[in-house]
Write the structure tokens for this entry.
Amino acid sequence: MLNVEIFPKTPFTESQDGTLDFGTVVHTENADGAPSVLLVCEHASKRIPDFLGDMGLTAEVRESHIAWDPGALGVAQHMAALMSAPLVHGGVSRLIYDCNRPPEAPDAMPVKSEAYDIPANISMSPEEREARIEHVYGPFSDAVSGQIAQHRSSLVLMVTMHSFTRIYHDQQREVELGILHGRDDRFALAMMDAAPADSPFVIRLNEPYSATDGVAHTLDVQAYANALPNVMIEVCNDLIRTSDQQRAMAEYLVAWIDRTLAGFQNRGAA
């Protein structure tokens, strides 16, 4: 049974208007000109707002992949630079709110992640739950939709960047690069068709997750709803620990995406 008494709630830190102070919950790195690709990184940050203290978690857990996607932001930023693409990325831990989940999803504010109970979420009040939706999910969603609206005449693709852990529930995963899709599978399938034959990585479609795991929210709500082709890319986080690894992965992915886009547009699929 989950024990809600193990998390001594710290006093809420309120802003001047009386709301909970979540700090900066979303960052937007704009691109000049008419970008063709929009990048999104929902799980870029492990930051926990001050009013939540340590959430009842050890430092090791707060640094681990259950709190964020290690390396994903670095890859996304290098990709953005290479493609002159705008990038929207999260500013708080996904343990506060997972911006790739709708408010009604149980794992939007998880009470348990893998083997870890999340005490601050177990003891969360209905008012705090609503505050997280309003002040984290809302601004993030608005930032993504704002970029789509601003650049809709030039955008041909949205890419969401994620990372995953090699070991999950004590099982080793073989996949190293995952190409995922939601309701629109066109670009994901095109990427698989254009995958380098001599790739040094194990590449799989819809692994280590798929839409049935609830991971396609941003793709479907933001891109599919706007008739914008889209794809989610998952990278094993032990491949992108350093800045050099992140840069190399970005170069690999951008070349692959560019090659795929050329064929995709030539077929008139976009």
